[in-house]
Amino acid sequence: MFCLGTKTGFFDIATWKNSNESFSWQSSFNLSHGTYVYPSVRCFNKVGLFSEVNRKRPLIISFMPPKPLSEDVNFAVHSATIQNTINAQRVTTSLHFHWPVFHDLSKLTSYSVCIKTDNRIVYDWKHIGTHNYFSVDGLSLVPATNYTVFVLGTNVGGKHSNPLNSSISVIDIVPIQTGK
Fold first, then answer.
1. pLDDT of 99-158, one tens digit each?
2. Within the chain, how many helices (H) and strands (E) appear?
3. How far apart are CA 66 and CA 75, in angstroms?
4. In the sheet that 133-137 helps form, which strands lie side by side, from edge to edge?
5. Contact 126, 112 (CB under 8 A)
6. Cα–Cα dist 13/39, whole Å
């Protein structure tokens, strides 16, 4: 026998169902994205005694991708400057960036990052865990070139967000201080 509930030991989603063997069961439930489901199983012996197993950790219903809470990746470099809303830096060996956390009711499992220039991959997609910042060192960035950082979020259902991205220009001149 088995049942499904919104808490351990509950059967408010699906009441106890009988089965004589292992099987896959499908049914339509009105569950929303991010719902926690706790399955329970009862195993009976030949004299009718049973043992009940309740899953302590929930299964999480996930059918929607995570959503970024912002549209921007922010760069954090000591020589960075913003001129006319364009990010620029003089450093040619590293990029440091961060972004607002993504929202997902079913639990975000990882972020992935990639760096491109003119559709050429400079740093290929890499899973970086659940922190919302990343640094890449040892790059060979070319001055007078724009680089775009892409960030994806992935949830427990394996759904990927739309990519978040921002660009930065690598410059080889010192910006003129205007005193303004």
1. 999 988 888 999 999 999 998 999 999 999 999 999 999 999 999 899 999 999 999 889
2. 0, 16
3. 22
4. 74-75, 94-98, 133-137
5. yes
6. 10
136: tokens are: 């890449």
The DSSP bridge partners found for residue 153 are 111
Helix, strand, coil content of the chain in percent (nearest 5): 0, 50, 50
Side chain identity at residue 135, one-letter code: S
- Whether 7 and 54 have beta carbons less than 8 Å apart is answered as no
Question: Which residues are registered as beta bridge partners of 3?
Answer: 40
Say if residue 3's pLDDT is above 60.
Answer: yes
| pLDDT at residue 134 in the model | 96
CB 38, CB 8: distance < 8 Å = yes
Alpha carbon of residue 118 to chain centroid: 25
- HSE of 30, CA atoms in CB hemisphere, 13 A: 1
Q: Please state, as a whole number, how many other Cβ atoms lie within 10 Å of the Cβ of residue 24.
A: 4
Report the relative pairing of strands 14-17 and 108-117 from DSSP bridges.
unpaired
